[in-house]
């Protein structure tokens, strides 16, 4: 999308040299007057740290609850659901189980107060590696850990997202182990859940999930699980950054089981669909592009898929950049844009993860966000960018 330039500018390191960059006006985004119906869309939200807290690597998470929950209200105000306590919230990368449990509980209360759609991740990250023995005993421990977290999510009034488990990836010795653990949990579910398949590009410890490093063998196991328990599955959330694989899986799903794309590279084409099938969305990138995403979905509701596609594609370069390898540092970019747009006091993340991207990477993210119309206050964004550059010796 194109927009007129503003008076705001900043000298940025671009292509190895310093050049003055003139910011554009933000996009013409709008909040919906009625609920969005053409797609179910969740934005996976990040967690804002307490700027005075000891959020160093390995320290318990110290969360700024006001800013964290305010960001969720911002997403709800644009008609999007919130996917909470997911990898975007730094599960396994700084957010410990005690803080996660409080996040789920607090988000549940806020969602109930405004009628916001909320789904939360249930995993096994309360377990330390030494807590999980090998074999059948280990699988039982993992199943019980899942149950504990499912109970927390259910008590908060949120929908359950069954997250991938690092502990299960370590202990499982066959596809049958995955089918056993997930089958038990699904048979016990009192309402349909979302299954989460997170690829190793997001978390290297999940390599070989579903019992195989071969994508097609893993997919066969996953499809078996879904067919056996289709009545307990609202949808599957797939984060493999492979559009062709997602389209094939989408076509193979039983009637009534949604595919929530987690493909932060190819989401425009997957959400728009092919005329017969489309993906819904559960995306970390939506936490960065939510005004544009919401406006695009509103166009879909109005039957204008061309306008929806144009808007989503206008954010594609930013999405690919934020999720570039190493992909698991995409949270740094999400928090960076949140800071530029005034949603948090400092550019920081729990676990010290704000250092996960270079100044050059963040400078390009700044430009791409501006070109996509996603810097809501250009003067504020430019001022904060100048501060970041100065602190890093650029000037």
Summarize model confidence as the mean pLDDT: 97
Q: Outline, from the CA principal axes?
A: globular
Percent helix, as a range, is 40-55%
Please, how many helices? 14
Q: What is the gyration radius calculated from CA atoms?
A: 21 Å
> How many individual domains?
1
Count the strands?
Answer: 10
Q: Order of strands across the widest beta sheet?
A: 3-4-5-6-7-8-9-10
Give the biggest sheet: 8 strands, parallel, barrel
End-to-end Cα distance, whole Å, is 30 Å
| CATH top-level class | Alpha Beta
What is the beta-strand fraction? 5-15%
Return residue spans where pLDDT drops below 50 for at least 5 consecutive residues.
none
At CATH level 3, the topology is TIM Barrel
SSE pattern, N- to C-terminal: EEEHEHEHEHHEHEHEHEHHHHHH
Using the 3D structure, state the CATH architecture. Answer: Alpha-Beta Barrel
Structural class: alpha/beta
CATH superfamily: Aldolase class I
Note down, in words, how this protein is organized.
With 395 residues, the protein is α/β, with parallel strands linked by helices. It has one domain: Aldolase class I (TIM Barrel, Alpha-Beta Barrel). It has an 8-stranded parallel beta barrel, surrounded by 5 helices. Strand 4, helix 2 and strand 5 form a beta-alpha-beta unit. Helix 9 packs antiparallel against helix 10, helix 11 runs antiparallel to helix 13 and helix 13 packs antiparallel against helix 14. The longest helix has 21 residues. The chain is globular, with a radius of gyration of 21 Å.
């Amino acid at each position: 999308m194109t927009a007129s330039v503003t008076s705001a500018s900043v000298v940025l390191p671009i292509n190895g040299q310093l050049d003055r960059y003139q910011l554009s006006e933000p996009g013409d985004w709008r909040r919906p007057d009625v609920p969005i119906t053409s797609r179910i869309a969740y934005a996976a939200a990040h967690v804002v740290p307490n700027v005075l807290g000891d959020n160093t690597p390995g320290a318990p998470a110290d969360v700024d609850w006001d800013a964290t929950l305010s960001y969720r209200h911002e997403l709800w105000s644009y008609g999007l659901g919130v996917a909470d306590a997911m990898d975007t919230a730094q599960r396994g990368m700084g957010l410990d189980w005690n803080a996660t449990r409080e996040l789920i509980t607090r988000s549940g209360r806020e969602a109930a107060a405004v009628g916001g759609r909320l789904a939360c991740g249930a995993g096994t990250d309360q377990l330390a590696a030494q807590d999980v023995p090998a074999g059948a005993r280990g699988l039982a421990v993992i199943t019980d850990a899942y149950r504990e977290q499912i109970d927390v999510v259910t008590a908060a009034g949120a929908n359950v997202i069954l997250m991938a488990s690092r502990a299960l990836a370590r202990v499982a010795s066959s596809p049958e182990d995955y089918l056993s653990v997930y089958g038990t949990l699904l048979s016990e579910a009192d309402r349909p859940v979302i299954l989460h398949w997170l690829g190793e590009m997001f978390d290297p410890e999940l390599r070989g999930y579903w019992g195989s490093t071969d994508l097609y063998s893993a997919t066969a196991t996953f499809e078996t699980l879904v067919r056996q328990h289709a009545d307990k599955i609202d949808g599957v959330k797939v984060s493999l950054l492979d559009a062709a694989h997602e389209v094939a899986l989408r076509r193979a799903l039983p009637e009534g089981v949604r595919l929530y794309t987690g493909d932060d590279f190819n989401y425009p084409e997957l959400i728009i669909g092919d005329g017969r099938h489309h993906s819904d969305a559960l995306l970390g990138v939506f936490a960065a592009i939510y005004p544009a995403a919401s406006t695009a979905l509103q166009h879909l509701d109005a039957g204008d898929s061309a306008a929806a596609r144009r808007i989503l594609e206008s954010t594609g370069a930013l999405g690919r950049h934020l999720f570039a390898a190493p992909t698991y540092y995409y949270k740094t970019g999400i928090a960076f844009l949140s800071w530029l747009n005034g949603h948090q006091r400092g550019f920081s993340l729990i676990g010290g993860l704000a250092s996960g991207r270079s100044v050059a990477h963040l400078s390009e993210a700044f430009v791409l966000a501006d070109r996509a119309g996603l810097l809501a206050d250009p003067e504020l964004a430019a001022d904060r960018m100048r501060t970041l550059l100065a602190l890093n010796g650029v000037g």
